Amino acid sequence: xxxxxxxxxxxxxxxxxxxVTPAPSWADAIAFLLLAGAAVLIIRGAExxxxxxxxxxxxPVTLDxxxxxxxxxxxxxxxxxxxxxxxxxxxxVATLAAKSKRAEMVIVPALDILQSVPILGFLTFTVTFFMxxxxxxxxxxxxxxxxxxxxxxxxxxxxxxYQSLRSVPTDLEEVSRGFALSPWxxxxxxxxxxxxxxxxxxxxxxxxxxxxxxxxxxxxxxxxTRIMLPGIGSWLALAIxxxxxxxxxxxxxxxxxVILLYDQFVFRPVVAWADRFRFEQTASQEAPQxxxxxxxxxxxxxxxxxxxxxxxGRLMMAIDRRPARVGRxxxxxxxxxxxxxxxxALVAVALLSAAWLVIGYVASHLAWEDALAAxxxxxxxxxxxxxxxxxxxxxxxxxxxxxGLRPRWAERLQPVAQFLAAFPANVLFPFAVIAIVxxxxxxDIWLSPLMVLGTQWYILFNVIxxxxxxxxxxxxxxxxxxxxxxxxxxxxxxxxxxxxxVTGALTAxxxxxxxxxxxxxxxxxxxxxxxxxxxxxxxxATAAGDFPRVTLGIAVMSxxxxxxxxxxxxxxxxxxxxxxxxA
Amino acid sequence: MATIHARPTAAPTLVQVEHLTHRYGKAGGGGLxxxxxxxxxxxxxxxxxxxGRSGSGKSTLLRSIAGLIRPDEGDIDFVADESGAAPTVxxxxxxxxxxxxxxxxxxxxxxxEAQRVPAEERRTRALAAIDLIGLDGFENAYPKELxxxxxxxxxxxxxxxxxxxxxLMDEPFSALDVLTAETLRTDLLDxxxxxxMPIKSILIVTHNIEEAVLMCDRILVxxxxxxxxxxxxxxxxxxxxxxxxxxxxxxxDDIYARMTARAAPEPARDGVFPGTGIAMALPRVSTNSxxxxxxxxxxxxxxxxxxMADLADQxxxxxxxxxxxxxxxxxxxxxxxxxADIQLTPAARRYAQADVDTRKAMFAQALLAHVPLAQxxxxxxxxxAGHVAxxxxxxxxxxDHMSPDYAEETLRTVTLWGRxxxxxxxxxxxxxxxxxxxx
Lengths: 583, 439
Known about the structure:
CATH architecture of the largest domain in chain B: 3-Layer(aba) Sandwich
Number of domains of chain B: 3
Number of strands of chain B: 15
Radius of gyration of chain B: 25 Å
Distance between the termini of chain A: 42 Å
Number of helices of chain B: 15
Low-confidence stretches of chain B: 1-8, 263-271
Largest sheet of chain B: 6 strands, mixed
CATH topology of the largest domain in chain B: Rossmann fold
CATH superfamily of the largest domain in chain B: P-loop containing nucleotide triphosphate hydrolases
Strand order of the largest sheet of chain A: 1-2
Distance between the termini of chain B: 70 Å
Mean pLDDT of chain B: 83
Number of strands of chain A: 4
Strand order of the largest sheet of chain B: 5-6-7-3-8-9
Largest sheet of chain A: 2 strands, antiparallel
Order of helices and strands of chain B: EEEHEEHHHEHEHEEHHEHHEEHHHEHHEE
Number of domains of chain A: 2
Order of helices and strands of chain A: HHHHHHHHHEEHHHHHHHHHHHHHHEEHH
Strand content of chain B: 15-25%
Helix content of chain B: 40-55%
Strand content of chain A: under 5%
Radius of gyration of chain A: 26 Å
Oligomer: heterodimer
Structural class of chain A: mainly alpha
Shape of chain A: globular
Shape of chain B: elongated
Helix content of chain A: over 70%
């Protein structure tokens, strides 16, 4: 009780506001400038969104480098709008799934499937839909682009949040019930903090994936309409149309700067902040560092910045109802069997009618030969994915192990690998096309590497993480017995990194399937290169506005991806979990 | 030091528990009966201990009183005092159950916050509790910065700050090392006897017999499978109690004897463990610790017969560890439990002196003679042409009689014993038993 002032300081960040400090520090000034700048940028960027569609014709996207920062800003704002929507979706849907058995029955399998279907294929449908919602306005197209990014981000975030909610530690759960915390307080005090670390990690992965889609979704052509939203993606599309090599270079540079900035100013601070919510009760060996977070923390601006949020939380806390009676368990009554049966019947009817609708739609336009053709093409794409994952593994596993076993290198190179994974590979596609055209290479073979260009890094950074996690005593034991090179790999390294490798390869292969839609058919001005595969099939059907074929292509690809996950990756995962866990 | 049992019977009743029955798993027939018609009366000014082995339902009883579990049958009556206020409870957890993202102060304030106590009052009360429990200076620390003992102090402060009438403690000291646990116990008893805590009564679950005798005014000894109150023991020794006091030792021995009593009248029969025949649930006991226990009892000073309390002391074992080991020896006819003592059979004394191969042979013989499940597996393997059988088959058989968890543990135990005795082999990849490790 002797150090009351110290106590008061740590209790609530909000109370810092009221405390008189000697003078604003340099940290305050820097943070203020940064925040004010960000505010201006957001307002400027948002202004553009609400203009009529016709303005896009008056002021079309041009390849003037002076416009590039503005475009980059618009692209970034779309990303964050989508991330916000994904967060909202996550809180709502995942919480619903965790709290209601009936909702869970529908939501969880749906999320599981949505996680693995090719989202790019949906672009055609959503653009049509959103443009119909806001005819003649840019806002509709903006929403379509944001929705496309959203569909690439939301599912795995929601899934991770749901899993966190389901695995809240029993003892903390009992404390909350013992003290009769209201649902809202329970969410704020227990569930949200517990879920935060994995949610942040998944949001980061989602953002990385999102850059890829933002580039693909800004220049949208459906049938014979082509709409170009101001942004890096449109700039790139235009540069490709005009075969402007320098403009592509500008886009690559802008993208690199944007990703670097968002990494330094948004995600690193957030990761450093989220570290406090990690559940392990032991002091963490290496807390993540962020200079921006340290800077913000030293200022009094952070509470101001978050005051709308904390204010909202406070308000909810204040109005939220008092617990009725402290500490009485609800009876573990079984759900009403009739209600359950009705619900099951409803779900079954909905599923059957959806299947009927899709099959009926496709069948009325297409014949069996189409399905067979799509299936054959899917096999080609699958072959590509398998071969490429194998090649990428052969290259990156040894390198990842080498890095992972050297902590100093791992520390420095791990962020680089994550940066590369976030970099949208489709920005680099034109270079490949130029090379293929120049040397007259076979597109069927040489377009394939583009599919793993962006996704191979998942293998690399997971292997680095796995190799760093191999216990030192095992390495020392292996060293002491002087095991041979091959035995060292077989008995120590491969089992040690295997669970991590499976995670990386799973992500990489899923991403590659998705990327095939943009990677199998690429152009450079008037040069069009195509590889035979399901990706090309979907891309061409989209360009032609052939909805039945798009539907068929997506359905076939979904079946392949889900089959791949169930028959290959899941069993490997289960095996790794059963036999190779270092615990 | 104040005597805390000044008014042993006149004290008003706080909580009255009657006919409490609870089962886990399938409702109706198949579930595991954890509590069977348990009654308990808690009065003011007493510390009551629930002593029993794991699976005896003592934790379930505690959680039922805490309102965390709704028992299948029975009444839990909170008796209101003169002013009409019903007693309130709050709980201290074995795992501390602190929120790692909240500071010590925020953790302590949690219960007050839930009750909508105004911020200023919350702060004052929380700081007072922190002060009382000896944590001042750590208000702004996060739990991960604290040692185990400090964390449990936070757990204690958090429980008493809401002014509960009844403090429930679920093995509060069992996750701590011996010295820390002792300090915390002493501090708690001091606060209690000086009346500095706002609580009227403490109910503590433990599986440490000495801890129970050290702290409690009344001890309820639970038998397991199903959980019943096997004995109620009043402890009238004055506080502070001395472990070396002959009266203390006598009481500890008495409780050991009561806890082995069920097996005593008809030594070495199936009934040591729940279930009969192949459906007998076997505890996870390693052959190494069995051998260790035999050697320990065989050697001086015990020379073949040892009081369980001394053995537990000597080997630093909790009853949850010691009893399953002793009872396994009894099952295998390597020992008999007589009162509070364990007596090795002549076979066990030969075992203690034998070399590795002879030991294995003796163990194999005992295993096949006295463990029906081992017999069963061996017989099936003998009958089969290829001398292999999927483990799934036995697991399913066991699950007809017990919960999947118990079935898994029983099968693992018999696998462990069978492997050691070289009676049969088990291949994890294929999940099957075989007579010999062919490859």
